[in-house]
C-alpha cells in the first residue's frame, strides 16, 4: 500500500503541489490524468525523492515518512520499494540492454553478477526482447527502449512502479507494444501509478482514475465513474477536450 497525505511542493515562488492526497492499495493500478502543469509528474518524482517535497507524509508498505524531515536512510528505504519508468527512457547509452537491467541489481543491491544476469534475461524475455540482450540503446526503437525501462524497473522487485507518461515520446505505431507490456505487468498484480494521456488504457486497465489540476486532486473514482459520469465540471471539460 502507498499513501500520500497533504503533499506540498514549490519551485521558488511557484507552488506546484498544494496539498494533494492519494491512496493506492496493493495490486491496484491507479492512473493520474490532468492538464499540463497540474502537478502529476512532480507528484511521482516526490514519491521516490527525485524531488523532495516541502510538506506532507508518505507511506510505502511499512515505511512512513514525513517529507520535510526525511533522512538519507528514509529515502533509501523508499527507493528500495519503488521503481520508475521515465518518459525519456533514461537508459545508460554506454551499456548494453542487459547491462542496463543488471545495473540496479549489482550496484545498489549487491546481487552477484551471474544471478543478476539470469534475472535480467528472464525479464527481457518477458518484455519481448530475447534477441536484444547485447544491443545498445541507440540500436533500439523508442518502444524497445521503453520496454528495457520496464524490465529494469521489474528487476528490483519493487512494491510499486511509477510510470511517468511512458508512451508520450513514442511514435504512434510503437505505443501499443509498450501498453501491452504494461497491461501484462498489471494483470500479474503489480501495484502501479501511471501518469498518462492514454485514455483507453486508463479506462480498461485502471482500478482507479485520479484527475488533478492546479496541484490538487479534483476527482477520483473507478474508470466508469470518472469517464462516464464525472461529478466535477472541470473533469468534464478536460475529458471533452481529450475526446475531441
TrEMBL record:
GO annotation, cellular component aspect: plasma membrane
Q: What InterPro entries does the record point to?
A: AAA+_ATPase, ABC_ATPase_HisP-typ, ABC_transporter-like_ATP-bd, ABC_transporter-like_CS, MetN_ABC_transporter-like, P-loop_NTPase
Q: What is its main location?
A: membrane
Q: Which PANTHER family match?
A: AMINO ACID IMPORT ATP-BINDING PROTEIN, L-CYSTINE IMPORT ATP-BINDING PROTEIN TCYN
GO molecular function terms attached to this record: ABC-type amino acid transporter activity; ATP binding; ATP hydrolysis activity
Coiled coil regions in record: none
Q: How does it sit in the membrane?
A: Peripheral membrane protein
Compartments where located: Cell membrane
CDD domains documented for this protein: ABC_HisP_GlnQ
- Write out the entry's keywords from A to Z: ATP-binding, Cell membrane, Membrane, Nucleotide-binding, Transport
The ABC transporter domain covers 2-239
Q: What is this protein identified as? A: ABC transporter related protein
Amino acid at each position: 500500500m502507498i499513501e500520500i497525505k497533504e503533499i506540498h511542493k514549490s519551485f521558488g515562488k511557484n507552488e506546484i503541489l498544494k496539498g494533494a492526497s492519494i491512496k493506492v492499495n496493493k495490486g491496484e493500478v491507479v492512473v493520474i490524468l490532468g492538464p499540463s502543469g497540474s502537478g502529476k509528474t512532480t507528484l511521482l518524482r516526490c514519491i521516490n525523492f527525485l524531488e523532495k517535497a516541502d510538506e506532507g507524509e508518505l507511506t510505502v508498505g511499512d515505511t512512513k515518512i514525513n517529507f520535510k524531515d526525511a533522512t538519507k536512510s528514509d529515502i533509501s528505504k523508499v527507493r528500495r520499494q519503488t521503481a520508475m519508468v521515465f518518459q525519456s527512457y533514461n537508459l545508460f547509452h554506454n551499456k548494453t540492454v542487459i547491462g542496463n537491467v543488471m545495473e540496479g541489481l549489482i550496484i545498489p543491491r549487491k546481487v552477484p553478477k551471474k544471478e543478476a544476469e539470469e534475472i535480467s534475461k528472464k525479464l527481457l524475455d518477458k518484455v519481448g526482447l530475447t534477441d536484444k540482450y547485447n544491443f545498445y540503446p541507440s540500436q533500439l526503437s523508442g518502444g524497445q527502449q521503453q520496454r528495457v525501462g520496464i524490465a529494469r524497473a521489474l528487476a528490483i522487485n519493487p512494491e510499486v512502479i511509477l510510470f511517468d507518461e511512458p508512451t508520450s515520446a513514442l511514435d504512434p505505431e510503437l505505443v501499443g507494444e509498450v501498453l501491452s507490456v504494461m497491461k501484462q505487468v498489471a494483470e500479474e498484480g503489480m501495484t502501479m501509478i501511471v501518469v498518462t494521456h492514454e485514455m483507453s488504457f486508463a479506462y480498461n486497465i485502471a482500478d482507479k482514475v485520479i484527475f488533478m489540476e492546479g496541484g490538487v486532486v479534483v476527482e477520483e473514482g473507478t474508470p466508469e465513474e470518472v469517464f462516464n459520469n464525472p461529478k466535477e465540471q472541470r473533469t468534464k471539460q478536460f475529458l471533452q477536450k481529450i475526446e475531441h
